[in-house]
Amino acid sequence: MRRYTLGMRWRVLLLLGFMAAPLRGQLPASKPMRVVSGVVFDSIANAPLAGAVVQAALVDSTVRVFSAVADADGRFRIAGLPAGRFAIGFQHNALYALGLESPLRAFELTDDVSALTVDLAIPSGRQVNTRLCGNVARDARDGMLAGYVLGARNANTLSGAVVVVQWLEVELVKGDFHTESHRSTAPVDAEGHYVACAVATEAAVGVRVTMPGYRALDAEVVVPAGGVARQDFRLADSAVSRGTSTLIGRVVHSDGTPISAGRATIASLSIEAPVLDGVFTMADIPAGTWLVEALAIGFEPQSILVDAAEQTSTSATIVIARRARMLDAITVIGSPTGELKVMEGIVARSRTAFGSVFLPGNPTLKAALRPLDVIRAARGFSYVGADSVTARGCNPPSKRGIAVYVDGLRFKVGMEQLKNVIPMRELLAIEAYPDAMSTPIQWRQNDICAVIALWTKR
Fold first, then answer.
1. What are phi and psi of 140, to 5 degrees?
2. pLDDT digits 0-9 by tens, 229-254
C-alpha cells in the first residue's frame, strides 16, 4: 500500500511548483511568528477529513516544511510560521484511493498579517470523474468507483485482484425495448488501488471482487450521477470461515424506530442471527469486508458492507425503508385458474423467504430476451458471461450449485441451457433466491447454494 510521510515526495512537488520564484533569504529570527489555520474537507464523502496531514512549505528560501494533523472536525492549526511565501497541501489515504495527488494552494504571510485562514479540500466528485475517466465516459451522467483492495489479515495490497461492476440498462433496439448487461472491469494495481469508470449512477450496481486464494465478495454500491463513490474491500483468505470479530448491529425503520423482529445474515459465511427489538449480534466473524443483510417480513431486504477486524467488536446500523411490493387484492368468482394458484404460491413464499420476484407486468420481465436477463437483475445474483450467472451463496469454497425449478419440479440443467428451457413468451413469473438461507424451505437441499424458479403460463 502507498504510505505517506512528511518528507521527500512533498519537497519535490513544492520545489517544482515554485522554483521560478526569486529567493529573498531567511528572515531574522526576531520577526514575530504567525499562524495559518483552516479545515480539510472531503468533497466525495461530504465530511471533514479527520487525520489529514497538512503541510505548509516556505519556498522563498531553503525549503522548510511546517505540519499539523487535522482533528476529528477536519480543523488544523500551524503556528510559528515566519513571514514569506508558502505552498500548502495535505496528505491522506482518501486522496490515493481516488488516484489523486495532493491539491496545492499558495499564500503569503507579511509583517502586517499575523494569522490567516486557508481551507483545503478533495475536489468534487464531478471534477475527479472528469479528470480520471473523462476519456472513457459514455454519458455525462456516468460515474466512477474507486478504492483499495487489501488482504484482511495484514492489509497487504492484493495486486492482481479484479473488481467488476455490473448492471442492467433498458435500451431501445430496433424500435423495441430490451435489457442489456453492462460491466466495467477494473484491475487492482501494485499499490492495491482500482478505478472503475463509466459506471451507471443513481441506482444500485453489483460489484464482484475476486482474487485467487481469497473469498470472492459480492456487494451493491450506489454512485451519484456524474460523480464518484469510494469503496475499499478487504478480502479474507479462502480457507477462513470463522474468526474472532463480533458484529453488534441495529435494524431500524427510516424514522429511526427499531423493527420488532427479523433476521440478519452473512450469506457467504452461512451466519444468521435473529433481530429482536432492532438488535442482533453475530460472533466468530473473520476479519474482512462482509455483506450483511437484514430481512423483515413486509419489507424489502436491505444490506450494507461491514469491515470486521480481528478481536474487536464492530457496530453497524441497517435502515429498512422500502416496503416489499405487494399484489393488489382481487376477488375471484368461480374456480381459480392455474396461473392464480401459481401467484398465490409466490405470495405465500414471499412471506417467509427473501428473494427477488418478477411478476407479470414487471418491466424487466417484459423487456428480457431470455430468463438470464431477468435473473441478472435479481438481488444477490451477478453476471458471469453471456450464458451464465453466479449467486452470492455460491462463492468458493462452496461446491454446491444453483438449482433450477420449472413449475415446481427440479431440472438438471446448466446456466447455458436455461435459455432453452422456456421461451420468454411462455414465461409467467420468476423467483430468484441467492443463497440457501433465503430459499423457501421446500427447495432447500444439501447440494444447492441458490435457487431459480420459473413458472409458465397456464
1. -65, -20
2. 999 999 999 888 899 999 999 999 98
Instruction: Determine how many CB atoms are found less than 10 A away from the CB of residue 2.
Output: 13
What is the tens place of the pLDDT at every residue in 69-108? 999 999 999 999 988 899 999 999 888 888 888 889 999 9
- Which amino acid makes up residue 309? A
What DSSP assignment string belongs to 420-450? GTS-GGGEEEEEEE-SGGGS-GGG--TTEEE
pLDDT per position as a tens digit, 193-210: 999 999 988 888 889 999
Dig out the grid coordinates for 318 from the structure.
441497517
pLDDT in tens, 419-454: 667 788 888 999 999 888 888 888 888 888 899 999
144 Cβ partners below 8 Å, 6+ apart? 125, 128, 129, 132, 133, 195, 196, 197, 199, 223, 227, 228, 229
Q: Are 54 and 70 in contact (CB under 8 A)?
A: yes
- pLDDT recorded at residue 122: 92
Q: Write out the three cell numbers for 102.
A: 495532493
pLDDT at 175: 60
Gyration radius of the chain over CA positions: 27
DSSP state letters, 389-400: EEEGGG-TT---
CB-based contact 75:39 (threshold 8 Å): yes
**3-state SS assignment for residue 417:** helix
d(CA 51, CA 69): 6
Peptide bond into 363 cis (omega under 30): no
C-beta separation of 184 from 164 below 8 A: yes
Per the DSSP assignment, residues forming a β-bridge with 36 are 78, 116
Residue partners of 454: CB distance under 8 A and separation at least 6:
371, 404, 405, 406, 407, 421, 422, 427, 430
